[in-house]
Amino acid sequence: MTNSSGLVLAGAALAAYHWGLRPWYERWGATGEEVRAVLPGDELVPRPIFVRTRAQTINAPVDKVWPWLQQLGQDKASLYTHHSRNRRRTAEFPGKLRAWPPN
């Protein structure tokens, strides 16, 4: 591969990321309404350079989901993550021995 074809390939990959993958990634799981919504803390940065709104739909009533959300965090039941690099970090924060509700 010549230098010019390598540059063209790199430019095409960058363009595909910038106009294809990046917009999807920055609003992963969020609806258009959620992306446009004013969220708590938005007033802290009046003109942000980057805006990312991600969401996860959970098909369950709030009273069943909220207790699980309350236990998230390094000083609580555990760190929950989909990313392998963060799962490795959870070993540093073992948290409680059991999660709510007990099995």
- Mean residue pLDDT: 76
Spatial gap, N to C terminus: 58 Å
Number of helices: 4
**Strand fraction:** under 5%
Q: Topology as H/E string?
A: HHHH
Q: What is the count of β-strands?
A: 0
Sheet with the most strands?
none
Rg from Cα: 20 Å
- Gross morphology is elongated
Low-confidence stretches: none
Structurally, how many domains make up the residues?
A: 2
Name the structural class.
mainly alpha
Indicate the percent of residues in helices.
40-55%
Describe this structure in words.
With 103 residues, this protein is an all-alpha fold. The chain has two domains: 56 residues, no CATH class; 46 residues, no CATH class. 43% of the residues lie in helices and 0% in strands. The longest helix is centred in the N-terminal third of the chain and has 24 residues. The radius of gyration is 20 Å and the shape is elongated. The protein starts with a helix and ends in a 14-residue tail after the last helix.
Tell me the layout of helices and strands.
Blueprint: H1 3-26, H2 32-36, H3 62-70, H4 84-89
Brief sketch in words of this structure:
It contains 4 helices and no strands. The chain is mainly α and 103 residues long.
